[in-house]
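Support request from a user on the community tier.

User writes: "When I paste my structure tokens into the form, the page sometimes reloads and wipes my input. The last time it worked, I copied everything first. Here is what I submitted, just in case something in the input itself triggers the reload:"
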């Protein structure tokens, strides 16, 4: 491979594939022609050599086209014949700095200097390359290509079927199975390998072994330790001074090989195994315990832990720029896929995102606080994202089995940030509530949803509609669900306001026909009982009887879980199907600290249910909920409110009904002002986001945006599209191991389908990964975060790619199980892997 092709294929294209946008800065115009000739139908190349204004217009046009889902353009290369901007002032003056932020830039670091590129391309001719550069600072490509012409390593090239010295070294470090067989059955390559090691790396083999394994052991130790030393800012500890390592001349080659081994999905697992072994053999953590700075590369796992500590320490000091930099550099390394490392990095990222969102909303809040309408609109557009980030943060926190002190401090800091903004918003909400009415004028009320979105459709002949009544589907979850469903159908998301008190019995009753005009509340045996047209509708049966009486044989109901599992056919007369789901509320009521990861179970069932409804000829689905909820994970001692004095006929953790005066910590309003009809004159509740009972980590029932703003999702169903071609997938654990020793095992999922063209198409596959026991029960799931969508629990895989997925096994499960990769809509199994537990106690 000549130097031009090396730069195009080994440097420019990989960066374009990763970020789709690359800016090449080249003041000497050395790379101009090789960049321009890379233009294809899928790759736009913008040359800023002639006209800065025209090139800016062209670049912006292509960037917009790159953002469209149906465009042919898959990459944008911007060539700028100028020096790389390094200071903030230089970046502000550079009209193409925007594209560097959107994607990648070249050069990016010392390794991108022309000399280092040539050394990496021809590692076996380092002396000659350095001599040429000492005489000519910028030698032509032809001069570099002429170096070593006619010289090769015939036995190694034939044995490994590799041409360049760089590819030969890579193959010797991590050979494919056919390469390994040839290395183990032939000996002619050994003398050439020794010469190659000496010339390229400065390594003189000590081992007398003549097998690939003995030579590879020494080569790996020399390679990784050398990179570790090159990257170490302080002096190397004297206790490690005699460990063989490369001289400075080999640094570019060493670093290039290590980067390739870490970044290539096919060799990552092998790299991890080797690095862990070498770290243990050299006892690096003990020898380096006095060091605090390990540079920027995490060659060994103990370095990655140091970077994690640095990130958490910077977070503690409010140094968000440093946290962001560390996350950018280290959250996508090989070590984040090992055990709880991914969970730890995920928690740092979630904490940073939550705190930044809280700060942004705190700055914007004064502009949206003058009226209840403005506050609700701000919640729908921005504040609900804070709730989403808080839920995902708490989900990440629950994944950390044994948080150490610094991580606990970070968790507390993030929770305090959420407490601060949510308290400010709640104070505004209650003040507006005291001056206005509920539900707010002009807002869709839950009590009118059935009559507005369902009843009119049932007047159309033959129209079939499914009514999903999902408990505790708060608004931010509705947004996540809408995004998921809109990929396949026409979906409309509405916001509605819940009926007070925001408890299940009242909320579900408010979703019945006629509730807006006729629902009232009464007291019966210390319980609040909703009444509709004189009939009690407090139980599931009573509510379903209302619909059965109104629609007769056209109505049918069951739980969503039963509908997904059963093969029982619906009656041909069914035009209104009610599907009920209570899992979110049930899990959060019983175990809020660990139940967040089960939320996506309900969203998964909804998706499967909709797919099934299409096959049954249904025209539409309307998804509703009774109330939202508030996660009170940041609860502290004293986070409880004393009930107001008075004669309260009904008392709930977040609301009281009866008579009494307001006080400094409780609001009390006329029941009619809050839209409550019935036996109660007044309504009272805590002004803050606290309950009347201490220690509640999850609650609803009261008045807050989180509890009272709910989603209504209408889906116009089309026909199920033909099943796509079954993807060719492969699942492997630790290079073929059959036993897991941790409850957070990491599996490699790869697609054997080939990706057409230079750039990934927008045809990634959405997949569901679960571990099932012998009875088919779920005993493990893909852990949220990283490649796993926190709301849906699914992963996206690009054809031809390999991803690492961390499984979270259930604490009480041990034994044999099967990891299944499935279609999330149909549960069709694409591939599976049989494993057993062998936990270290």
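"...and here is what came back when it finally went through:"
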């Amino acid at each position: 491979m000549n130097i031009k092709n090396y730069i195009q294929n080994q440097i420019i294209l990989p960066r374009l594939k990763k970020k789709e946008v690359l800016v090449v800065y080249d003041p000497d115009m050395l790379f101009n022609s090789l960049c321009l000739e890379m233009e294809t139908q899928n790759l736009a190349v913008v040359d800023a050599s002639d006209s800065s204004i025209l090139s800016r217009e062209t670049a912006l046009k292509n960037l917009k086209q790159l953002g469209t889902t149906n465009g042919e353009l898959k990459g944008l290369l911007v060539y700028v014949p100028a020096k790389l901007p390094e200071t903030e002032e230089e970046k502000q003056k550079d009209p193409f700095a925007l594209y560097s932020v959107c994607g990648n830039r070249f050069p990016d670091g010392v390794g991108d200097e022309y000399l280092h590129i040539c050394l990496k391309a021809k590692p076996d001719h380092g002396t000659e390359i350095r001599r040429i550069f000492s005489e000519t600072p910028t030698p032509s490509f032809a001069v570099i290509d002429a170096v070593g012409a006619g010289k090769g390593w015939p036995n190694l090239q034939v044995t490994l079927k590799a041409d360049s010295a760089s590819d030969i070294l890579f193959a010797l470090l991590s050979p494919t199975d056919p390469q390994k067989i040839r290395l183990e059955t032939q000996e002619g390559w050994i003398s050439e390998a020794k010469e190659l090691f000496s010339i390229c790396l400065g390594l003189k083999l000590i081992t007398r072994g003549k097998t690939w394994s003995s030579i590879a052991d020494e080569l790996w130790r020399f390679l990784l330790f050398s990179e570790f030393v090159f990257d170490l800012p302080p002096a190397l500890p004297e206790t490690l001074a005699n460990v063989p390592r490369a001289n400075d001349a080999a640094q570019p080659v060493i670093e290039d090989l290590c980067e390739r081994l870490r970044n290539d999905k096919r060799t990552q697992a092998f790299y991890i195994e080797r690095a862990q072994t070498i770290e243990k053999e050299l006892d690096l953590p003990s020898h380096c315990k006095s060091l605090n700075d390990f540079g920027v590369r995490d060659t060994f796992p103990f370095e990655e832990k140091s970077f994690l500590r640095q990130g958490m320490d910077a977070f503690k000091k409010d140094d968000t720029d440093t946290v962001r930099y560390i996350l950018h550099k280290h959250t996508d390394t090989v070590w984040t896929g090992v055990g709880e490392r991914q969970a730890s990095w995920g928690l740092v990222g979630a904490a940073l995102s939550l705190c930044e969102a809280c700060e942004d909303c705190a700055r914007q809040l004064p502009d949206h606080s003058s009226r209840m309408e403005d506050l609700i609109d701000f919640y729908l557009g921005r504040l609900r994202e804070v709730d989403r980030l808080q839920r995902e943060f708490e989900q990440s926190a629950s994944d950390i089995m044994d948080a150490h002190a610094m991580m606990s401090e970070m968790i507390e800091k993030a929770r305090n940030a959420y407490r601060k903004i949510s308290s400010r918003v709640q104070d505004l909400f209650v003040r507006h509530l005291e001056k206005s009415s509920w539900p707010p004028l002009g807002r869709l009320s839950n009590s009118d949803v059935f009559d507005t979105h369902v009843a009119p459709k049932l007047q159309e002949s033959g129209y079939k509609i499914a009514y999903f009544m999902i408990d505790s589907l708060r608004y931010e979850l509705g947004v996540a669900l809408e995004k998921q469903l809109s990929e396949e159908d026409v979906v409309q998301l509405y916001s509605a306001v819940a009926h007070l008190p925001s408890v299940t019995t009242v909320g579900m009753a408010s979703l019945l026909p006629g509730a807006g005009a006729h629902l009232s509340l009464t007291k019966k045996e210390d319980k609040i009982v909703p009444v509709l047209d004189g009939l009690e509708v407090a139980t599931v049966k009573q509510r379903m009887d209302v619909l059965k009486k109104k629609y007769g044989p056209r109505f049918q109901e069951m739980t969503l879980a039963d509908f997904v599992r059963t093969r029982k056919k619906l009656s041909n007369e069914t035009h209104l199907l009610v599907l009920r789901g209570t899992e979110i509320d049930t899990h959060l009521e019983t175990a809020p600290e660990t139940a967040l990861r089960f939320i996506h179970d309900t969203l998964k069932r909804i998706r499967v249910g909709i797919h099934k409804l299409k096959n049954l000829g249904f025209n539409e689905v309307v998804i509703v909920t009774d109330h939202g909820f508030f996660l009170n994970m940041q609860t502290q001692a004293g986070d409880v409110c004393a009930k107001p004095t008075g004669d309260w006929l009904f008392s709930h953790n977040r609301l009281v009904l009866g008579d009494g005066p307001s006080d400094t910590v409780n609001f009390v309003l006329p029941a009619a002002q809050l839209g409550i009809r019935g036996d109660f004159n007044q309504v009272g509740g805590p002004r803050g986001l606290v309950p009347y009972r201490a220690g509640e980590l999850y609650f609803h029932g009261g008045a807050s945006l989180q509890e009272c703003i709910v989603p209504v999702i209408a889906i116009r169903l089309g026909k199920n599209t033909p099943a796509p071609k079954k993807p060719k997938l492969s699942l492997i654990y630790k290079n073929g191991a059959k036993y897991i020793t941790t409850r957070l095992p990491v599996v490699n999922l790869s697609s054997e389908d080939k990706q057409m063209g230079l750039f990934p198409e927008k045809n990634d596959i959405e997949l569901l990964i679960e571990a099932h026991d012998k009875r088919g029960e779920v005993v493990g799931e893909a852990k949220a975060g990283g490649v796993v969508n926190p709301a849906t629990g699914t992963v996206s895989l690009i054809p031809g790619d390999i991803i690492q997925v961390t499984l979270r096994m259930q604490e009480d499960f041990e034994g044999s199980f099967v990891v299944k990769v499935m279609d999330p809509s149909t549960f069709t199994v694409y591939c599976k892997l049989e494993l057993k537990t062998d936990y270290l106690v």
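Agent notes: The reload is a front-end session timeout and is unrelated to the input. The chain has a mean pLDDT of 89. The chain has five domains: 3-108, 154-290, 302-435, 442-718, 729-837. Escalated to web team.
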